[in-house]
Design goal:
Blueprint lengths: L1 H12 L9 E6 L5 E5 L4 E2 H11 L5 H19 L15 E3 L5 E3 L4 H4 L11 H4 L6 H17 L9 H7 L4 H10 L10 H13 L9 E8 L2 E8 L5
Antiparallel strand pairs: 1-2, 3-4, 4-5, 6-7
Length: about 240
C-alpha cells in the first residue's frame, strides 16, 4: 500500500488547477509511514457548516453557489484530463476553503486505494456495490454535498434521509440539478458540465430564483447531453 500511495501522491502533484488543493510531494517518517505534503488552507466546508449551525449564521445563497461552482470546475478539470481522474471521495470534509471562501478539492484518489477512508454517507449506490468507478460516481457525491450545503442538513446514509434531504432544497432549479445528479442509476445522471451550466444559469439569471414553474431536463443535441430550461407541464 505504501508504494501505491506514494505513486498516487506523485500523480496528484502533477495536477494544477485553482480549485484543486495542490500536493507538493510526500515524506517518509518512522515505521515507513508516508505523509503527503500539501497546500494548507483556512479550513473545510464541513467546518463552516458546523460553525453555521452552532451560531445560526448560515452562508448566503451567493456564497453557496460560488462554492458549488468552484467544486464543479475542479471536478470538471479532473474528468477532462487525458488520463481521466475520479476523485472518489467528494464530501464537505474534503472541500477546503481559502480565507476569501474559494473552494478547493482535496484528498484526491485516497478512496480508490483503500476502503477504510470511505464515508458511507456520501457513497454512490454503485460504489457501495463495488462497481467500476466512473465520473458519475463523483457526480452523485457532489449532488449530495450540494444538498447539504443548500439546506444545512447533515447527509446520512439512513434509509429515506437522502430523499428527505433532497426535498429540503427550496430553490426549484437547484432541486432539479441536485435530483438529476443523484439518480440511483448512474447512466441517468447529468454530467459535471451539465451541473455546472445549470448552476451558472442560476447565478446569471436571478429572475429564475423565484420561479418554481421552471425545471431542468436532460436532452440530447447532436449526441451531446445538455441541460435545458422548459416550462413545467401540468402533468409533471
Amino acid at each position: 500500500m505504501g508504494s501505491l500511495f506514494q505513486s498516487e501522491i506523485v500523480r496528484c502533484a502533477k495536477l494544477h488547477h485553482e480549485h484543486i488543493a495542490h500536493v507538493y510531494g510526500f515524506n517518509r517518517v518512522k515505521n515507513g509511514v508516508t505523509i503527503a505534503i500539501m497546500e494548507v488552507l483556512q479550513g473545510s466546508l464541513s467546518d463552516v457548516l458546523l460553525a453555521a449551525q452552532s451560531c445560526g449564521q448560515y452562508l448566503t445563497l451567493r456564497e453557496q453557489l460560488d462554492i458549488t461552482q468552484d467544486c464543479l470546475e475542479g471536478l470538471n478539470y479532473l474528468h477532462q484530463l487525458p488520463h481521466q481522474v475520479c476523485h472518489c471521495d467528494i464530501r464537505p470534509t474534503n472541500i477546503l476553503l481559502t480565507a476569501d471562501m474559494k473552494a478547493k478539492l482535496s484528498d484526491l484518489g485516497e478512496a480508490r486505494l483503500t476502503d477504510q477512508v470511505l464515508v458511507r454517507d456520501y457513497v454512490s449506490p454503485e460504489r457501495g456495490e463495488h462497481r467500476p468507478l466512473t465520473p458519475a460516481t463523483d457526480v452523485f457525491s457532489m449532488g449530495l454535498t450540494m444538498c447539504e450545503l443548500f439546506t444545512g442538513i447533515k447527509a446520512t446514509y439512513k434509509l429515506g434521509t437522502r430523499e428527505a434531504l433532497l426535498k429540503a432544497v427550496e430553490h426549484s432549479v437547484l432541486y432539479d440539478i441536485c435530483s438529476q445528479m443523484m439518480f440511483r442509476t448512474y447512466t441517468m445522471r447529468i454530467s459535471v458540465v451539465d451541473a455546472l451550466r445549470g448552476v451558472e444559469h442560476v447565478m446569471d439569471t436571478p429572475d429564475y430564483w423565484n420561479c418554481p414553474s421552471k425545471r431542468f431536463v436532460k436532452g440530447k443535441v447532436n449526441g451531446a447531453v445538455q441541460v435545458t430550461l422548459i416550462d413545467k407541464p401540468d402533468a409533471w
